[in-house]
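Schema walk-through. Below, the input block comes first and the output block second. Nothing else is stored per chain. Lengths vary across the set, and this one has 141 residues.
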Amino acid sequence: MEPVTGLDIVYDAACGLCTSVKEWLGRQPAFVPLRFIASGSEAARQRFPRLPAGELAVVGNTGEVWMGNGAWVVCLWALRDYREWSLRFSSPLLLMVAREAFAAVSSHRAGISDLLSLRSEREIEQRLRSVIVPACLPDRR
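--- output ---
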């Protein structure tokens, strides 16, 4: 079997929590390159047409696909400082706990985003587009 040498992480860019986690993942030292693709984007539709929009998914260079809590465990596996955690969460007992925790957070991510004032990439883009930039005055020297 071919080794995993890179991961595409498909995340919900309309979710503040998802965007914040993506940024956190991107700052961590990783064993393999991580590429982030917004779910529902043109790039995601072209590369992964069968993936459901809005759900965390990780696709390895090997073609393997992980969804939901499995995707989160694979993200941890890719990180230098968190691989041990991924191995712990892969054990049968903790995998069940990880599944329940991921489901709880996932089903309340909009509320968590609001509570923590986490803004999604799409919200930030919309706010920036609504800013009116004043025209520069001519130089009167």
